[in-house]
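Final report, closing paragraph on structural work. Over the funding period we assembled a curated collection of sequence-structure pairs, and we close with a single example.
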Amino acid sequence: MHARRWWGVAVSGWLAVGWGTLPLAAATTVGETAPEFSLPNAEGRAQVLSAQRGKYVVLEWVNPECPFVRKHYGSGNMQALQRRFTADGVVWWSINSSAPGKQGHLTPKTAGAFLAHQQAAPTALLLDPDGRVGQLYGAKTTPHMFIINPEGRLIYAGAIDDRASADPADIEGATNYVAQALEEARAGRPVSASRTKPYGCSVKY
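Its predicted structure, as stored:
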């Protein structure tokens, strides 16, 4: 079966329960101070948002079993973004808010295995099993991306790019909203697309 057709079949089953039409409403507001939180990483060490003041912070909601997430990890796209921006001093936190017993739930052990298997390069993978931080930020999908500036204000919320599909072939030529926002903000320019409609599987709270 051709790759594009395979992804289409796979996603058709996921759309009914995982994506559909998603509202733009979120618990956070672009331009306002990002809500404070603390979550453990895969090694059990607490990571506190306010301790990152002075740096750009990317929040990436992740579910390793979601085909939209697999699109970006299986192709290496997400890892390339992580490496590119963390090398420039950006803090990149992947966050797993899948509840215990729900699809994509990660424990410290399985989180470490996921990072190793994917050769992922976030600053840390944070575990949010009760969904508290996901709900605080209004995370709807995996992936759902947020960017916080060095002053602690939310400057981007939405999709990773403008190709709302699970087909890796669609990455080439897509506008990557996360890279675009970081490049603009770090150059002192306004973020041209500060809020977009997220796409992916629903977060499994």
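The helical segments are 3-18, 67-74, 77-86, 108-118, 132-137, 177-186. The CA atoms of residues 156 and 194 lie 4 Å apart. We thank the funder for supporting this effort.
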